[in-house]
Structure formats: structure tokens, C-alpha cells
Amino acid sequence: MNNKIKRILPQLLTILFVVFVFGFFTINAQVNMDNRGIDFGFDFLSQEASFDMQFTLLDYDGQDSYLWAYVVALLNTLLVSFLGIIFCTILGVVIGIARLSQNFLIKNSAAWYVEFFRNIPLLLQIFFWYYAALRALPLPENAQPWFGVTYMTIKGYYIPSMIWENLNVFMSCLIAAIVAIIFIRVYAKKIQEREGKQLPVLYISLALITILPLLSFLIGGVTLDFEMPKLKQLATTSFIFEGGVALPPELIALVLALSLYTSTFVAECVRAGIQGISKGQKEAAASVGLTPNQILKLVIMPQALRIIIPPTTNQYLNLTKNSSLAAAIAYPDLVLVFAGTALMQTGKAIEIVGITMLTYLSISLAIAALMNWYNKRIEIKEK
Amino acid sequence: MFKHLKQLTSLFAMIAVLFAFTTEAMAKKSKTLKNTQKKGFVRCGVSQGLPGFSNADASGNWTGIDVDVCRAVAAAVLGDANKVKFTPLSAKERFTALTSGEIDVLARNTTWTLSRDADIGLTFVGVNFYDGQGFMVRKSSGITSVDQFKNGISACTNIGTTTELNMRDFFNSRGISYEPVAFEKADEVVAAYDAGRCDTYTTDKSGLAAQRTKMKNPDEHIVLPETISKEPLGPVVRQGDAVWEDIVRWSLNTMIEAEEYGITSSNADSMKTSDNPQIKRLVGAEGEMGAAFGLDNEWNLRIIKQVGNYGESYKRNIADTGILPDRGPNQLWTKGGILYVPPAR
Questions:
Q1: ipTM entry
Q2: What is the reported pTM?
């Protein structure tokens, strides 16, 4: 009995203490806000936002509500994080492996890259790309085409846009191809386990993913046209490109800075993972006659991934949170639009900052959950 | 076990006492004036650098017509116009700084609007500059009027300002599609526009005139003649302290009325013997004009002597610096402008 109390009492007191502290701050805030005539509430979310955004993925207009502005801004944050994570992973893996190369030049350039980019503050790098590098780009009227049809200018990167007809037919073909590939992989694994035969899964998959969508063009009535960006004169010395898709320089600078910076940390995770596998594993694999490629794919990587994934998850979380530095260069992300303009226009500081914090928390937890799931999948399964 | 319990109990007791004290302190009405006099300086929120309104020089001295409002309040309540602590704030931070009690007066070229006045715990006390939003373009673009704006134009501006909203109303009403590029700091906006990121830069016209002086080559830019909005800029105080609100309001009014009656920093003392009772009231020689605020009778005289009247402040900060030599609407009502304040009596 006494033992039970001993166990429970401290926990009870801790809970009481936490509740008390929260209660204290809530009451404190409430009293102060009442004194100053500030209302607390989330009604503002349904009001008209009445400001515009430079760059949105979904249709947004100033007539939409603050709630919709929040969603659109959140998508912008997710877009930057998503692109950043993809690029930093690709770059990080390449650099990480390059650091282990036998080649003196490759090894040392990779080491220099890592030391250079991870030791300069991120905000400074964002400023560099936005205010120095991208500012050196030509005005639209002086831009020379890249790859014939795209234009890199100080006002953004203009690329042709695609105009589809019967896009749904094409998409169904693509999905069908992907489903077929999954089935074939499962089937090939079964065959291998039962009969020891290896099917050329890679070639079959490649064939499927090209032939099926191609068929949709030939007999499915799918057509694809490109709309090229065209130079348009606004005034004597002011030009823009019209048509096509425009990637704003703010997005480019932010993705560049975030992925270059984070890739150095990912590279170190990859290097640590590979170096964490004992040499004996490699030698043992070689002695049973596996080729170097097979050794990397079948022996080293599956084990290295277990070391790489947890710290890399941290880097992904960092990148997502760092994307809030967008506010410094006018990229309309959650912090600039919602915790900036919306907060200013409504004056609902506590509500908006609270929502923004909860949002970042949720994004981070979602990424962590996804990575933990993947980590679980690849960890050693005791049989 | 019981030892721990004892420690915890004392901890709770301490927190409870703290709690009791704080709620008691909060139950009383905030006394901004009393706190200011106790501290010995007026806490004033200003811009991060807008020539003519609030701008710090190399040695950290603040000047500008917004700064002069704070100096006037300091002269009135503390007797010394220099007893002001200036806090530079971005457009985004300004209202939170005021409502949270970090500053007591916000004099930061802030537009008086209904929603700001009514919603967010603020009270506007008057107007010290009548402004309107305009556009700046490069001279070489050949644009001389907003009628020449075309679809696809990109416009640089600040976030968290009425500018962002007016801009949308303007372009929407004309059916022009545009690209808004909104930065948090004014310097970033200027840098982006100057580099060619945007075709036009839009903010209050006084702001455009002031920022033009910061450009690489000011002569390459022009401010278009059209004004697309009303922007009455004025000082703001926290809601809930009516006396403090009145002090700030009448400090500003005193400066404007002093100009109306020809009282300047140099002749204020001699005006004490004037025949005009209104002038005598303004220099503290007649009536009890400070009692209602809890101030002495010469509070207004100190403002005029130490800061000057509105005309002196305008000339020193805005006209002589070449920002806007023409006073336009910011002229006294007796001289064709719209500056008209209630009588101090």
C-alpha cells in the first residue's frame, strides 16, 4: 500500500503542477487581454483575408478566408520542405559516398563541400542566393534561353507549361503500370524463393512504365502541347515572360540554400552509416562470390540504412523548420503570410502564433512518424 | 517520502503567493503615467528608419515628426524632451509591442483605420501626417501614370501594412493581374525594387519620397502622381488608460495649435504676456490646463519650448531634408490645409 502511494504520488503532483502552471498562464493572459480590450477567438478564420499572395499552388484570391490563406501558405511551406528534402537527400547520398571514394580529388572536394556549406549560417546562405547570386541574373529582355525554351531571369525561372488533353486516360495508364510493376515484383520474389530463378524485374518494369503511357498517346486520344513563355513588354524598359510556368526567384533561392546546407549533414549521416558496417561484412560477402555492386546493394546498404535513417530524420525535421526563414526573402510561406500578414491584419497574436506552432509541431511529428515507420520496416527481423 | 512532500508543499506555497500578488497587481487599472514618471523616460515605438518620420543618425540620435510626438510627451510629463527610450519596430511587431506593454506610445507612421482602432486593443489619438498611397517606377520605363500599368506587373511592398490591402483593391478594381512581392523590412523592399525584381514599388507617398533618397541613383526613379488611398498617420496608445490617451492626444494638439497662434520655440516665453487668452492658455499663463492630466500648468509651454510647434517640426524634419518641401494637406486649416484641432481650453 505504502509502496503504491510512493509510486503514484509524485506523478500525481507532477500532473497537478503542470495543470497549475498552464492554468496560471492562461488566466494571466486572459486577465491582461481583458484589461486591454483584446478579444480571444478564432472567428477571424472565416473572415475575408483581403490580401494577395505572390505564389500559390491552389487557387487563392484575396476574397477567400483567412483559413484558406492558411491552407495555401501551409502548402507553400510543404512544397519548399518537400523539394528541399528530395534534393538534400540526393545530394547528401552522392556527397556522402564520394567522401569514402578512393579517388583523392573526389574525396577531398566532397570534404571541402561539407565543411564549407555546413559552417556558414543558413540565413546568410539564403541571403547570398537571393540577394547576390540571383540578383546577378539578367532582366527578362536580356535573358538568353537555357535548353532553348526556358529563361532564367531576375524575375524568376520561366519554363514551358504542359497542356494536356485526356489527362485522366494518361494518368490511369500510369497507375495501371505502377500496379502491374508491384505485382510483378511480388511474383518475382515468390519465384525466386520457390525455384531460385531471377526474373529481369528492372527491365520488365522499365518496359511497362514506358509502353503503357505511350499506348495512351497512340490509341487513348491523349495529346500533349507545350505553351512556351513569350516575352511581353509592359513599358519601355519593363518586360516579363507570359505563358508557361514561372518559378519565383524566392522559391529557387530558398530551395537551393536549404538543400545545399542540409545535404552536408545528410552526407555525414551516410558516411557514418557506411563506415559503421564492419569491414568483415564486406570481406565475407566477397568471399561468397558477390560482385561489388551486389555487396553494396545486398550487404552493406541494408545494414547501413539502419544507422543512417534516425539521424537523417532529424535533418529532415530541421530542414522543415528552417524553411520558416523564407520570411526573410518574401517567399509566401506559413510564417510570412499567416504569422506575418494575417497576424498584422487581425491582431490575433496569441491565436495565430499558437496555430502556427501547432502546425509546425504536426508537420514534424508526421515526418518523424513516417521515418520511424520506414526505420521499423528495415530493421533486423528476428526469425 | 515525507521529506519530498514537504519540499513540494513549500514550492506550491511559493507559487500560490506569487499568483496572488500578480492577480492583485493586475486587478488595478494600469497607470501608464505613474509608471513613466517612476521610470524617468517615455517608452516610444518608432520605425526602423524612415527619413523624416523616425530615423536614427550615426550617433543614435532620433529625429523625425513621429519622434517629435514622443519628445513632446516626454517634455509634458517629465519636463525633458530627451527623456525618451526609442524602440525600432517592424510593421509586423508594432501593435504587439504596444498591447503587450513593451512601449507606451507608438509613433510609427501608422495608418488610422476602423479595424485597428476597434479590434486590437489600440486607440488612435490623432493624425500628425495626412498621407496617401502611391507608386514609384523607374523613369526609363516611360510610365507616367498608373493608367499605363499592364497585366503581369510585379509590385514590391511591405507585409503587414494597409499598403498590401490597398494594392489589391487598386489592381482588382482595374482588372489588372499583378505579382505582389512582400518583404518584412522596408530596406529589403527597396533593395529588391532597386535591383529590378519589381516594376513598381508601392507604399505611402511620404515613404516613397523618403526611401527614394536611399536608392543607388535617386534620379532614376519617379513617384507617379496618383494617390490610391487615404492614409492618415498618427500616434497610437494602448486601450484602457484614458488619461494617458488624453496626454498624448493633447501633446500633439498643442504643437498644431501653437503653430496656429504663431507660438514658436523661440517666442514661447514672451507669449505669456500676450493679450489673447487662448495664447495664454497654450503657454500655461492662464487656466488650469494640466490638472486634469495630473500635470503641472506649464506642460504645454515645455512642449513648445523644447520641441517646437508642428510647423517647426515639419520644416526641420521633412521640408528642409528635401523629402516633401510642399506641405500639401498637412498645412493649417487657416492656410488651405486640413490640420484642424479642437481648442485647448
A1: 0.77
A2: 0.79
